[in-house]
Write a structure and sequence with these properties.
about 200 residues; alpha+beta; Hypothetical Protein Pfu-838710-001; eight-stranded antiparallel beta barrel; 4 helices
């Protein structure tokens, strides 16, 4: 009688999204009008201010272009509410809305996290800053961003398209590029600018 090795257990199915990931749904628009005018429109639409303007500092990490080259992002951010480490998957678009898998965790010490990432082989490849204030319109977060290359508004949430339309924006005309890509294109037109988008 011959003995046979036990059958290996079946492989676990690969999840379509990373465990613990949220789905970010976002629309971004460049503003031709002053931010005060948009604030009046938001108030008229029933939105309320949720977080006053605060400066954001962002560090983007990569390792041999393994993330940026595939449209993924690993970012450490500090702002008026603390520090967060965020991973974003590649974007896809659904009726103009940018959709990305996102995992975000709060971090107690930004400098220690930067040191940890460097020690495991990552390096800071880009930095960018902006001043952001956040409003809420129903279930949608509306972010007003003042940046070195102009002012923008972002609508984030499951009802982003409806909220944007309510405020007078056409989702079909949303800006598809990230702030990093926008700044890269801006630098092509202004080659004397530094590599990082800083105030």
């Amino acid at each position: 009688m011959t003995s046979s090795s036990p059958e290996p257990p079946p492989a676990a199915p690969v999840p379509s999204r990373p465990a613990g990931a949220n789905e970010e749904r976002e629309l971004k628009f460049a503003l031709a009008e002053p931010l005060d005018e948009l604030r009046r429109r938001l108030t008229g639409a029933g939105a309320h201010l949720e977080r006053s303007a605060a400066r954001e500092c962002n560090w983007v990490f990569d390792r041999r272009d393994e993330l940026f080259g595939s449209s993924r992002l690993l970012r450490l951010r500090t702002d008026g509410s603390g520090c967060r480490l965020t991973f974003k998957g590649p974007p896809r678009f659904e009726e103009g809305v940018k959709v990305r898998d996102e995992i975000e965790v709060g971090i107690g010490h930004a400098e220690r996290m930067r040191d940890l990432l460097v020690r495991i082989g990552y390096r800071v490849v880009r930095r960018y800053e902006k001043v952001r204030e956040e409003w809420r319109l129903g279930s949608t977060v509306v972010a007003l961003d003042h940046t070195p290359i102009g002012d923008f508004v972002e609508f984030e949430g499951a009802e982003a398209a409806a909220a944007a339309t309510r405020c007078g924006f056409d989702p079909a005309h949303a800006e598809r590029r990230s702030y990093l890509r926008l700044y890269e294109d801006w630098r092509r037109e202004h080659p004397d600018l530094p590599p990082d988008m800083l105030f």
